[in-house]
Amino acid sequence: MLVSQLLNPTLREVPAEAEVISHQLMVRAGLIRKSASGLYTFLPLGLRVLRKIETIVREEMDAKGGQEVLMPIMQPAELWKESGRWDVYGAELFRLKDRHNREFCLGPTHEEIITDLVRGEIRSYKQLPMLLYQIQNKYRDERRPRFGLMRGREFIMKDLYSFDRDEAGLHESYQKMYDAYCRIFARCGLSFRPVEADAGAIGGTGGTHEFMVLADSGENSVVYCSGCDYAANTEKSECRPQAVEDESPQGQRKLVPTPGVKTIESLSEFLAVPKTALVKSLLYQGDDKIFLVLVRGDRTLNEIKLNNALGGFVSLQLASPELVKEILGCEPGSVGPVDTPAGLMVVADEEVPLMKRAVCGANQADHHYTDVVPSRDFRIDQVLDLRMVEPGEACLKCGAPLKEARGIEVGQVFKLGTKYSKALGANFLDENGVERSCVMGCYGVGVSRTMAAAIEQNNDEFGIIWPMPIAPYQVIIVPTSNKDALVVETADKLYQELQRLGVEVVLDDRDERAGVKFKDADLVGYPIRVTLGSKTLANGQVELKERKSGETHLINIEDLSHQVKEMVKKALKC
Amino acid sequence: MLVSQLLNPTLREVPAEAEVISHQLMVRAGLIRKSASGLYTFLPLGLRVLRKIETIVREEMDAKGGQEVLMPIMQPAELWKESGRWDVYGAELFRLKDRHNREFCLGPTHEEIITDLVRGEIRSYKQLPMLLYQIQNKYRDERRPRFGLMRGREFIMKDLYSFDRDEAGLHESYQKMYDAYCRIFARCGLSFRPVEADAGAIGGTGGTHEFMVLADSGENSVVYCSGCDYAANTEKSECRPQAVEDESPQGQRKLVPTPGVKTIESLSEFLAVPKTALVKSLLYQGDDKIFLVLVRGDRTLNEIKLNNALGGFVSLQLASPELVKEILGCEPGSVGPVDTPAGLMVVADEEVPLMKRAVCGANQADHHYTDVVPSRDFRIDQVLDLRMVEPGEACLKCGAPLKEARGIEVGQVFKLGTKYSKALGANFLDENGVERSCVMGCYGVGVSRTMAAAIEQNNDEFGIIWPMPIAPYQVIIVPTSNKDALVVETADKLYQELQRLGVEVVLDDRDERAGVKFKDADLVGYPIRVTLGSKTLANGQVELKERKSGETHLINIEDLSHQVKEMVKKALKC
What are the tens digits of pLDDT across the range A71-95? Predict the structure, then answer.
């Protein structure tokens, strides 16, 4: 491809609305353009990257026996009512009506459609397992679309659904997909980590893993073990309770004045006790239930654990100040577990019962209790793992210290169980002629998101640094002059030669200064740049530059094509 | 691919709701399944056909310098308001609102989005011509979705948009696309015809051609010349007026009683005059204009010509009986051109003034005028070509007789001119630094529709007969026994061998009777079937059957793979 004929509008300025680096660079490098908030057009180079990721995903799905189908984006409301999701899915579901006033949605996911398909076609256990997938647009009416392709309203996903006879079959399909996902992100040339994750709102019986592309800018926090292969979403990671060395109090609890003190920080300072000696008391409302939650003062409550442990509320939030006043007669900053109403459930993180001499709120303004002993001085109805893990803690599996990293979620594998097959009646006859529900799994890769994540992970101050397997083109040839006939002719010859060798190459034939061409080449992020200058060429040499390392080498012109071909081949094998 | 592992649910019965053969066969052959009215899932074999058509389209677009992009399906209302189409597009546009109550539509076409993109990126004439295309879902809220993929609500199209400096450039781009389309449908192995067509509602300055796949079941009628390359949509085809040999009347027109006579047929019979002697008079309402339309009694009025000739009404229809009564004082069956109100415009087909002695309605019940002479007895305000062409008429270009055929529209090329570039301000600076509007063209291929049209054209009582280039697989191997070890092993060996040779092959390894496998193979329509039976195999032979011709040959086992490979190669070259 000749750059002069390519729609690749590069920009020097950072677009004002682009908050994250991948969004900035995708716009600046001319890969995408915005059509409306959260809706983008992929320009030719952006689309090439997308297609490469799609191809890798497709090959790995096929290798595991996945069969590709293509389901409608518009989905009838009836199916969503059958599964029970029409009413609970909320504002993120794009809904519309046809001319006959029938309701539809734009699919954010396809469990209903695929289960409807399969229930019509599956009869016997002999047809299972069945793995069906598609690569297609998905829709989500984000409250605030942002970060370019990272959180758009229209995005491209691969979604595979597995149908098995039983849990053992599901486990096998799950493992296949887990392995395939590892291969996908490795083949894309990305540094990633599968982490144990929370099942969240999709529901389902079993485990789930998220695949995180590691990047400092990632919005997810993950912990991983420095000693073994344990890794988890920080919100999911189980914690080992750690007791603090502390002496039991000599006498009864004391009510002490703490004028104006309302936070853990100020309390620790005011009383000159470490945060580990404080009990953080939080009144929560989950749907129509109210309960008091306790964690140690130095810890962070993990709301996801709290919600999972208490059975999964649709809405879980801190009680309003008015509600706190009504229940406990004080402000939120004064809440404590002593002498709470009999009907109020008190749940505590596992570390709270291990405290020997605690300080807590007294449910009255400007006072706290000291020398408080859990159980002796207050009731705990349920002890649970409710806190966020912290880097440096011991791995639950092997005891080695955990480390923390930031990541971008690009894939998730999920054991659904029989939630959808039961709701929609996707049954089969087993070996004994008994009708049973298919056991399902679902497995998603954010294809357009992977493109953004790849940039978040691979960039520098000059632009994108594409991993070879997903680069829009592998090589750019830059003649530094459009007037030196030898330069122009040699550039063209190399261009032809590399194409013949099957290398994906663009030739920057524009009538621009060399500096402009270099800047654009770096910005777009072609892995290899071949530069032809009058002087070096007079010596029979051209310059070869690796985008990633920045290293340059002078190469004899006759060796160039072969050497480039080898570099590409090597980089694709990694 | 092993058939046992393929989701390819075939049906023996014709699905009740499928009215056309392509819909019936696509469901029966397990290529698609309905998710909702006008919304389909492509199953694995159907998707393979689709992808093959897409690949052919993509290659031909790229060969003409087209650059592939991917635009959003969801389009903001603002852009459609800018182009003026938001209010006029009507009920076929799927509209929806986001959570912030902003309006969007699901794109039935992408002129607005692409023009918005280009206006942001184009500065200079040096960047033109620019040809941008995508292959993507389109949406149309059909009043009555039917015929499977022929008239769905969600369908796949390739749409290319050309941007040129001037009309000459547009003409060149148009010709490129015309040529590319000819190659596309030829490469798909289809019998087709490009025909001159009506510009219709898209608007635009220039010509347009439709590409018709010829099939007796086609919903479009086309005429083509037996002598030259002229071909046109029947509705578009210009007519040469033909005079009827007739004598002028001796005296004045006569009012004759015609009790109960209200149609051309009954009038011709009652008065014993040929239909060529009758004037058909029709009162029409175009938006808020009313006019009388005259064509010869043996001809059919062409409403599209009428509408184009009179300037393009949003709504054009026969006047209601009430309106006829109000304007002419009679029923619609008695309408005639004599003594009409002075303000009523009378438009006549070119053949009407050539009539010498005509019969027409008298604007009163149960009477007609005979011996009427146009101009002498009634006024004609405008003479126009207003009738439908008929097979057998002389070609306007060469005089040879026209023939008629039926076709399915699968593509259209269209000169848009500056309609959208002016509305949205897609301008560039020409050689003299003068700002000018891009001159645009748009070019669509119905990708999923082409799949349906291919089946309409290529089928028999046993099923689909795929042209080799778009067959889901090229070859099916059918072992007639799953018990004869030699049959099973040889089938597997051939399967491996053909795969190694790059032939797309499935092996029907199911534990089914040979008859069932044969029926399915014919139904799905694999171009080549290789059958392995115990008896023939004992003689070292297998049977090779061509789906299209139905011819079978016994081939020595050692020649089979090579011969199949050659057959495939030959069929792909056609």
Answer: 999 999 999 999 999 998 889 999 9
